[in-house]
Structures are given as structure tokens and as C-alpha cells.
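Lecture 7 notes: from sequence to structure.
We start with the chain below.
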Amino acid sequence: MTVIDKIRESVQAVGCAFLYNAEGEMNDLVARCPEFQNDGVVCLCYLLKNGTAAQVGCSWVERVNVGLFFSMLAEYDFDGIENEERLECCKQYALRWVQSLVNSDTLRLVSVNSTERVYNTTTDVLTAYAVNVTIEELMGITPCNV
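Predicted C-alpha cells for the same chain:
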């Protein structure tokens, strides 16, 4: 199972649809995602630069920096109060996901590097709560695997 598969599983476990691609390719995925049309929260995910490998005990594990945008569609001329309610919903899913990593048996939260309130990320108007995290896989490569 890849690290993206593990992230996908963990996001879906908190009730969000999951889309993964390069940052510039998200427009096509957003346009075709039925969960957006049903007022659902969708997590847009992409790997960031500067991952590392770390030795944990006698194993080597990959640490990745990942950006996750817990998002909902918004109207072009959105009402500020209504949009804040959507943003709060996105934030709750994002923080629920971060908390879920505490009990995960596949991923460990190394750090939350930043969060951001986002109001427009693609050609569609999105409201999102973005989380930039460093996570590591809990199963690594031991000397026996090399």
C-alpha cells in the first residue's frame, strides 16, 4: 500500500471524498467530482517538495510533506456569513483528520506545518481549510528488507 493509499484511507475514514493529483491538474477532478455537487466536503491532496527519510529504531521510514485542502463549492458572489459556515465545516473535517492520525496504525503525524483559510483555488470557486503536514509511514524498511 502506497503512502497516498494510506492518506486516502485515513481521509475517507473521517467521511470525506478524496482527490489526488498534481496541484495544476485539480481543475478537471473538481469538475467531475459528484460529492461537490451534493454539498459534500472533498479533500484535495497533493505531495509537497522536501520529503525525507528518517531512521526510527532499526527501520527507515519515509516522511512526506503533504497539502490537504478540505473543500466545498461556494457561489461566485458568496455571502460572507454563509461562506464562514462552510469554512467552519471544512475546518472541522480537517481537524478531525489530524486528530485521527493520533490513533492511526499506518501513519504518524510528525508536524502541522501550517493551516490556511482558502477562498478560491481553481477555476471553480472553492472554500477550503488547508492543512500542510509532515507525516510518516509507520511501517518502514528494516535491515532485513535491504
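Points to note: The chain has four helices and six strands. The beta strands are 17-20, 42-47, 52-56, 59-73, 107-118, 126-137.
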